[in-house]
Amino acid sequence: MNPLIELKNITFHAHHKTILDIPHFQIQAGEFLGIMGPNGAGKSTLLKVLSFLTRGTSGEIVYRGQLIPRGNAPLDLRRKFSIALQQSLLLDGTVYHNITIGLTLRKTPKNEIKEKVAQWMELFGISHLAKKNALHLSGGEAQRVNLARAMIVEPEILFLDDPFQP
Fold first, then answer.
1. What are the backbone angles phi and psi of residue 118, rounded to the nearest 5°?
2. How far apart are CA 105 and CA 135, in angstroms?
3. What pTM does this model have?
4. What is the pLDDT of residues 53-100, one digit of tens each?
5. If we measure between CA atoms, which residue out of 52, 84, 81 comes closest to residue 160?
6. What are the start-end ranges of the H helices in the chain?
7. How many CA atoms lie within 13 A of 1 on its CB side?
8. Which sequence spans correspond to the domains of the chain?
9. How far is the CA of 85 from the CAs of 59, 88, 164, in angstroms?
10. What is the mean pLDDT of residues 96-114?
11. Residue 23 CB: number of other CB atoms within 10 A?
């Protein structure tokens, strides 16, 4: 069985340091995978490379058997992935707006957006925050908004980078 996503000889260098040096790494469809290591080991960088937020210095990424060209991954591929970073990078606007952004960019019909947002806000217990400015949330509230925003687009692959760590 072909892996869902595979890294081959991925390196990432920054500030004259090697952050990643991964000869081979793969994720199978349906697999839940946890990556553990000390601070500074490159865990967050690995997730950013896997989700195409950061480009590796060298190496190859293969998705469902197809080599992804160096540079920017195609938009339709990037939309199959979602990431919730350790720091909730929320937009200046309401909680509702922050959760809808992925669906809005995908041109999802407004009635479907409204329905999905209501469902995810209910699941995360944040319905009462819909009209609150996202930049004025507590750490826990911001994390729940961050997770709802990542999950509402129903990604094929969901990357979680310490999403429960304030």
1. -60, -45
2. 21
3. 0.85
4. 889 999 999 999 999 987 778 888 889 999 988 777 788 999 999 999
5. 84
6. 43-50, 75-78, 95-105, 110-123, 139-151
7. 9
8. 5-71, 95-160
9. 24, 6, 10
10. 95
11. 10
Residue 145, class by beta-carbon neighbours within 10 Å (0-12 exposed, 13-18 middle, 19+ buried)?
A: buried
DSSP state of 21: E
* Residue 149, token pair as written in the block: 């925003």
Q: What are phi and psi of 146, to 5 degrees?
A: -60, -45
Q: Which residue has the tokens 């009462």?
A: 128
On whether the CB atoms of residues 106 and 153 are closer than 8 A, the answer is yes
Q: First-to-last CA distance in the chain? A: 38
- The token pair at 89 is 């990078």
Distance from C-alpha of 149 to C-alpha of 31, rounded to nearest angstrom: 22
> And the tokens for 97?
């707006």
Tokens 């290591």 belong to 37
Average pLDDT, the chain: 91
Q: Any bridge partners for residue 7, and if so which? A: 25, 61
| Helical packing angle, 95-105 and 110-123, nearest 10° | 130
Residues sharing a CB contact under 8 Å with residue 20, sequence separation 6 or more, in sequence order: 10, 11, 12, 42, 45, 46, 49, 56
Task: Tokens 């200046």: give the residue.
Answer: 92
Length, in residues, of the chain:
166
